[in-house]
Design a protein that fits this description.
1 helix, mainly beta, 6 strands
């Protein structure tokens, strides 16, 4: 389980919820990253307000940018290994 700020429905800041969520093992072509820093930007606000649909659908975790360390790799991943430092944007 990890702590996350999630959005289950569109609206103002009151729709943000802080909750524990399960994180499964990475699937085909995926990696699992332990974030050391994240960025919450205008696009997160636009998704929350419903101005644009979240690509992840509902509910979604706020914070589309981050930097951290690879903790697991899924089948078929060849460009990353556990311990690699990565950034996502």
């Amino acid at each position: 389980m990890v702590a996350a700020v999630r959005v289950h429905k569109t609206g103002g800041p009151e729709v943000l919820t802080y909750e524990d969520i399960p994180v499964s093992a990475p699937g085909q072509g995926q990696i699992k990253v332990k974030n050391h820093a994240i960025g919450v930007n205008f696009i997160d606000t636009y998704f929350r307000m419903g101005m644009y649909p979240s690509p992840a659908g509902m509910p979604f975790v706020v914070g589309n940018e981050g930097a951290g360390e690879v903790t697991a790799v899924g089948p078929g991943v060849t460009d990353f290994k556990v311990g690699d430092r990565v950034a996502m944007w």
